[in-house]
Amino acid sequence: MACPMSGGIMEDHDQESDQLTEGPGMLYGEYLQLDKILTAQRLLSAEYNREVHDEHLFIITHQAYELWFKQIIYELDSVRALFNSDSNSYESLNGTSNNHTAVQKNRVPPVLNESRTLEILKRLNRIVLILKLLVDQVSILETMTPLDFMAFRDYLCPASGFQSLQFRLLENKLGVRQEHRVKYNQNYTRVFGRDPKAIDEIKRSEEEPSLSYLVQKWLARTPGLKAHDFDFWGKYERSVEKLLSEQEQFARKQTNEQLRNYHLANVCSRKAVFETIFNESHHNALVSRGERKFAYSALQGAVMITLYRDEPRFNQPHQILNALMDIDSLITKWRYNHVLMVQRMIGSSQLGTGGSSGYQYLKSTLSDRYKVFLDLFNLSTFLIPRHMIPPLSKHMKTKLSVACNGWDPDDNQNNSE
Ligand code: HEM
């Protein structure tokens, strides 16, 4: 069908665009270097004269993943720089060790410039959206049947997603620690043994402050935590004691023995759980067992932000915490979708082309050990009813209002109530 505008304005337009394409500057294909990208699909099955139609999809899917990994890393690096830009010291958090080459400095790091939190949030949310896409993308590859995959799988060996450098960088930059990886993957650097540049990049990603480390440092500076300030932690502990004692009284009043025992057991287990956050050494023992990841002071900051998230100055921090959980949970979902696809394609007892036990290895990576922000997920355990949340002092209320510009943990030494 002819364009109704042709013969009139459009004709002039066509001439103009002809002129534009002939002018200076780059054209679409040049700018995007499509000659490189669109000629990078090399079907091994075709090279062996047994072309398998679905190998094209297999390659494109992996390439699309790698491009998105690149974008995620780009955003992640910028977010880490924003978190780190006000501070040039990597002091240890609460004395807990971190695996960065720590430059010990005693000064209190300057607070995060709040105008940056919006930018951080924007970029974290972008990462979240990309990850959502990556989770969904698995189903496109699943349109390939196991029989089709079998027809070219042998040509791939020893290539495997296990050798994806960007995936390892992504994990390390988020804060997955070597010792938390499943055993088979603790020495993953050997996979890149033939590539010294890749090894260098991996080492650097392990030594640089990870997102988790920087987030913890930021949380540890949450205003109102310090005892000489609002003393949130002291007040929160007293509220929890009151709550537990009320619950215990309620339990003891039950006339039905079965019900009484149930409620008493419940209070007892709640007490034990709270003990793990009020007793720092208890908390640290959980950290050393990998059951918690955050330093004590960071966990305190996260609890405070969660309880007072309605205060204007805590809105964005609270959204940042949610975005971090989204990232963790979407990566777990990706792992899960990938492992299901692997089982569908090669079953549960074939070795992977990368040499692992395949499905069994991948299944073991679905555990909490790979959740960098595990403690944020578990915050709900420590919530208390709204009416028991310690009321903010007038000073804290002002400090957490939009009118107050900037967090400064040290500007309020004499303002406890
Ligand atoms: C037919 C589709 C696929 C199959 C059968 C498959 C199979 C496997 C297997 C068996 C492993 C374990 C390592 C080994 O090879 O021994 C693995 C790891 C991996 N694959 Fe895939 N894969 C598929 C698609 C993908 C896609 C589309 C991506 C996207 C980039 C991907 C990324 C990865 C990554 C990053 C790992 C390492 C995971 C880790 O160590 O935690 N795979 N894959």
Automatic annotation (TrEMBL):
Region (Disordered): 1-22
EC number(s) on file: 1.13.11.11
Domain of life: Eukaryota
Keyword Transport attached: no
Cofactor binding: number and manner: Binds 1 heme group per subunit.
Cofactors that this protein relies on: heme
Function: Heme-dependent dioxygenase that catalyzes the oxidative cleavage of the L-tryptophan (L-Trp) pyrrole ring and converts L-tryptophan to N-formyl-L-kynurenine. Catalyzes the oxidative cleavage of the indole moiety.
UniProt name for this protein: Tryptophan 2,3-dioxygenase
Organism: Xylocopa violacea (Violet carpenter bee)
